[in-house]
Recover the amino acids of this structure.
């Protein structure tokens, strides 16, 4: 009798954080006020959001409630974002290194999911935000197409275009040419305007 091994989302999560971390580290202080495809965020606010999400992941991973943490962390020095991201990443990865976290049910503001599904979902969020940063700072060539393919497949399942409005986390999908690259298709699916 063979037993199928359960999916471990941590390697993909680490890859998505590697990609995001490279984008964060590449941001120059003069780019912090650049607009991003996320309508409510400039680059500084998007960086603050990404760091905050990592803190929230650490909190929920220990069974805590992350609702009191801000959606955007501020007060980081212009040249301190790479360090803030690296510290928050380390904190989150330490919490999620415990195999027991993967099968525990985690309450998020928008769903209750297994730890495996939580890390999958946030891998895709960091993939999308890496594109947002790369677009805002003109570093699109540095993105991993496999991560974008995975994210597009996942978002297609849990964020169908019919259930969207301008008020939700994802705007209605935007049409793109059939030959658009995978990052452009992901961004357009999420309602960004590449």
């Amino acid at each position: 009798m063979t037993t199928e091994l359960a999916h471990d989302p941590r390697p993909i999560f680490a890859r998505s954080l590697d990609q995001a971390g490279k984008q964060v580290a590449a941001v120059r202080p003069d780019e912090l006020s650049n607009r991003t495809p996320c309508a409510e965020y400039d680059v500084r606010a998007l960086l603050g959001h990404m760091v905050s999400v990592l803190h929230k992941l650490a909190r929920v991973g220990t069974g805590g409630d992350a609702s009191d943490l801000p959606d955007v962390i501020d007060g980081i020095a212009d040249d301190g974002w790479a360090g803030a991201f690296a510290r928050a990443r380390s904190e989150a990865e330490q919490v999620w290194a415990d195999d027991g976290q993967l099968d525990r049910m985690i309450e998020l503001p928008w769903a209750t999911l297994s730890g495996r599904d939580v890390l999958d979902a946030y891998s895709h969020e960091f993939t999308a935000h890496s594109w947002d940063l790369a677009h805002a700072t003109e570093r699109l060539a540095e993105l991993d197409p496999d991560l974008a393919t995975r994210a597009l497949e996942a978002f297609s399942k849990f964020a169908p275009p019919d259930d969207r409005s301008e008020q939700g986390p994802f705007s209605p999908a935007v049409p793109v040419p059939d030959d658009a690259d995978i990052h452009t298709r992901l961004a357009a699916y999420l309602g960004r305007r590449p």
Observations:
- Residues 51 and 85 are 5 Å apart (CA to CA).
- The radius of gyration is 16 Å.
- Residues 115-137 form the longest helix (23 residues).
